[in-house]
Amino acid sequence: MLILCKETYTMELNMSFPKEVKYVQENRIPVVLCGGTVEYHGPHCSYGCDTLVAEGLIKKLAEKKEIMIAPTIYYSPSSYAVADETSGTVHIEEDVFEAYLFQIFTSMLYAGHRNVYVVIHHQFEQENLKPMTLSYMKASQRAIMRYLENTQGKGWWGSENYASYYDNLDGSDDPFSWIKVIPTMSTEVQNATGYDHAGKYECSILMSLYPDAVKLERLGDIKHWFTESAAEASKEIGDEMVAKSLEYLEKKIV
To answer: Which domains does the chain have, with CATH numbers?
Structure first.
């Protein structure tokens, strides 16, 4: 939460004004956006599952530490790995999506943002990099590189201004850390709790965050191997997953 002029503001970019944005930038407060999907998750789990998990965690994180929440990016390379085009999944081709992200990140850089986090739940098993995550990573690094060339000229990195580059890797002075792409759940958190697609664990964390987004009574409507374990889902399991995820995110987003 941000307090200005004795008024309390919700730290959401789309509800903010230049004064709030300036405050965020001057104080290097993290700007966090969720990378979402619209993807089939069986008959019992909502299409927005991956998006809702990321959004729900970030909203809870905002209650624990000062961040600014940027608008979610919903449509993305969901892929048709789980189900085909008739399933309701919305898939955006990676090249098209990356070009779109490049424009978003470029605009954010010119606006002065230097501490941006993209949080993703979709296809991030064991922190392995799948097409959607790679699109975010590639677009962000391309945008940073292009921005630096446009604002500091070609040869910017080789200039004396960056003589201390290797001393500042991963620090706030490293321009390539201005935009980071991270999972909702680290490998350690996944190993400690569990991770799946529309099964016991994903349904549990979604039940904890958005109970109305899971309808276990519909589980038998359509049978899939990956949804069978959802019968064991519970809010209690989800609460533990949320707690461990928040503990990780609170340390990761700085």
So the answer is: 11-17+26-155+170-188 (3.40.50.10310)
